[in-house]
Hints:
By secondary structure, the chain is mainly α. 39% of the residues lie in helices and 6% in strands. The chain has one domain. It is built from three helices and two strands, in the order ββααα.
Amino acid sequence: MLTEGKGVPMAAVISGANTHDIKLLEETLGSILIFSPLPSLEKSQNLCLVNRFRKLLVRFEKKAENYLALVQFACALIAWRKIISVHQL
């Protein structure tokens, strides 16, 4: 999962457990629907990975479609939590 600076998901890609994260970098960056501005000397860009949803921590789903649905639900939940916290301030 790729997130923007405040933790809102921008892209998610799934693969087998034996695939290293670095091998999915190009596919993950290619699945971003909203592009950020190019980095400059004043504003650099970083790449961080997000985790800790218990159901997603260990994959028990056999079908990739079911696991992808859980990942997309987690992305929606993260975005929802960010929207709620912004409106409560």
